[in-house]
Request: fold
Amino acid sequence: MATWTVRQERLRTLLTGDSGSQTFVPAPGTAGLQFVRTDGQSMWPSADVLRLPRGPASAKPFCFPPKEVVGHYADHPASAATATAAPATTIVGVRACELQAIAYLDRVFGQPPVSDPFYREHRAAQTIISVDCVEPHETCFCTLVDGRPYATEGFDLNLTPIDGGFVVEAGTDAGRLLVEQAGDAVTPASPEMLAERDRLRRAAVEKLSVTNEPYQPARPPSEALAAAEDAAVWDRFAQDCVECGACTQICPTCHCFYLFDRGAREDGAFDRLRAWDSCMWSGYSRMAGAPTMKPNPRAQFRSRFANRFLHKYLWSPQQWDKLGCVGCGRCTEACAGRIDIRRVIREVSA
Ligand code: SF4
Ligand code: SF4
Reply:
């Protein structure tokens, strides 16, 4: 893969090459780094934010918005829902774990048998500029789920922060075009710069290995979880859970949703929306109809609590040939009950 370098003060020139695209960059907020839309130079935060640990927000909402109109019904028979082209969007500062999460969502929504048109429109409009994690959080564990704190695929451009600037890699033609448009802001990376990049990557992997050594499962979680679907061990963790759903809302791979209709307007038309659901909420999997006709398959909280882990570590590999957890650690940070997913997986696996 061809590599270049860009000085920190010229980074904006590289990242705003596509002037027809709305650009989102990480910026410090009260809850950590959040993606904000930048319109011109005044709103462009310092490139230093790309050297910080990842923020709580992931790129999921750009692919799969929290709430979205998926149908418009104007008369009878109902008119079909149509997906309109999404605006061109550049997302800067996406982490390697989020790229893995997008690859997972691509399997769920972006290919047969589902091939969701709304999802595909969002994805088709995106330019993704990822950045290596040189400072992983204590809660990060991508290396426990076969990930790395740096990206090797799934990006248009990838940045590695080095002294005074960034090493740049292009993963697609769109990325190479940005490099071309940047002119003399971008120059070929020297062997010393590449050596620094590789050293930083090894250091981040080493830090993750040390941090996560106590959480290494004794055997592959999928083997253990297959035998633990209704085990009492879940109760121990479930009793600390307040069913807030924060873990699923913040997760870059959770994708359960429900549909609802927004009230009829004067002309009788109405919209159908889909919104993020959560297996941690009591209404999850509840169905219309008399209880005796359609019993709730997950009426017990233990069962819903276990569902989150079973789905990610057992059923996702079976269905999508990919883990549903990318080891980002966001759910652990968000949890009011201080439930660490690494500890759950390790103890249930044991
Ligand atoms: S389950 Fe937790 S650690 Fe795994 S991808 Fe979701 S938020 Fe990240
Ligand atoms: S964030 Fe923690 S307390 Fe809230 S639903 Fe998830 S596991 Fe339960």
About this structure: Residues 221-349 form one domain.
